Amino acid sequence: MSLFRKKSVAEMLAIENAKPLKKDLGAFDLTMLGIGAIVGTGIFVLTGVAAAKHAGPALVLSFILSGLACAFAALCYAEFASTLPISGSAYTYSYATFGELFAWILGWDLILEYGLASSAVASGWSGYFQGLLAGFGIHFPTAITSAYDPAKGTFIDVPAIIIVFILTALLTRGIRQSARINSVMVLIKLAVVILFIAVGAWYVKPSNWTPFMPFGFSGVATGAATVFFAYIGFDAVSTAAEEVRNPKRDMPIGIIASLGIATVLYIVVSLILTGIVPYTELNVKNPVAFALNYIHQDWVAGFVSLGAIIGITTVLLVMLYGQSRLFYAISRDGLLPKVFSRVNKKTQTPVVNSWVIAVLVSIFAGIVPLNKLAELTNIGTLFAFITVSIGIMVLRKTQPNLKRGFKVPFVPLIPILAIVFCAYLIIQLPLMTWEAFGIWLVLGLIIFFTYSRKHSTLNGKEESSKKVG
Fold first, then answer.
1. Rounded to the nearest 5°, which phi and psi values hold at 443?
2. Counting runs of H as helices and runs of E as strands, what totals does the chain give?
3. I want to staple 282 with a disulfide (CB 3.0 to 4.6 A). Which of 40, 48, 233, 409 is the partner?
4. HSE on the CB side for 306, CA within 13 Å?
5. Pick from 307, 339, 194, 322: which is nearest to 261 by CA?
6. How does pLDDT run across 248-279, given as a tens digit for each residue?
7. Residue by residue, what is the 3-state secondary structure of 179-200?
8. CA 281 to CA 278: how far, in whole Å?
9. CA–CA separation, 144 vs 133, rounded Å?
């Protein structure tokens, strides 16, 4: 039983043609899904801390550096998504390129990425929501406001748990309804960001950009590794492939357009933010609203706080969606129990799968502190980006005549640039993160050799080929 047995492209396209999930999405829906996942935590939370602690006004360079890494990787994702429009993202691409073992490693890695990102975003949403209610004099009992921390008297984050279950209920009603609600929230969020840009641009003081790089280029690099969390959402677009009406055309549009729009917004917002407020004062949880209060535009700050809650809600919605489709794809291949790939006949969504994920995410969001949740997300994402970029070069060499809806230009230059940029960012992450990631991968390998390898759907095909032979 080979560890590197692969699924052929023909087998994967047969899955896509079987239409187990409802094909209801177009290019606009995919772009809104991508923006929904990308524009949120990065603008409303990470910008302040990254500027104050790492990059200073050069935060704009951090966003450009991270954006370039993601842009090169996004081109590689777009080619794969248009060629193999199957749920599972990097997991599925690795199955066709490197074989089952590497596919499992990528799938296990993405389970970590989506699971912890969902929990972290739910926890962040809880903080913003409680802040908004506090403005109206409404307060929850301290014990249920945050994860377990006896020193602060908190034991469980109930609002975080509630939002996870509400969004899961929405996702199980069908992808069409979920996509429509996501699009409405994304448009509101974009309007709020544009409002900040329109108001804040008049209060920029160029003197606040001096010194431009107070922590040196190493600070810019560390800032890039920090804000990279803001960009990971476009990966979730590729998990929607089986529910897209015309994936060969629409998948590349959704991936590239959402990343491009988000990158421009991040660059403009970071410039205005550091131009309004001295970077030393930006170490706050709500930097955009804080900047507006700083220039006495309190009415706009109120809209931004509401926009932040909506923005973080869309991030969580898409992360939960991506996780459920990832579980669906891995389970369909037999590497996880079959219960995760059962599809409800009425809604054509993996309902049981979605609720199991909701329970797991809510446990982590409700009990584990936010800083612990976020530590491993970036390394998992960068690892996936590097693997997908290598996969493009491998597939171009092994199957040069394969029909592709979109082709990465300048191969192997673009994939190599993606690998170099992502490798540079991954090196910036602390040793403790690497150690924890290693432990997670070892656990995954144990599961693979004790369960997944024995239950893989490829086993039946191997037995059939032996009988024929």
1. -60, -40
2. 21, 0
3. 48
4. 12
5. 194
6. 889 899 999 999 998 999 999 999 999 999 99
7. HHHHHHHHHHHHHHHHHHHHHH
8. 6
9. 15
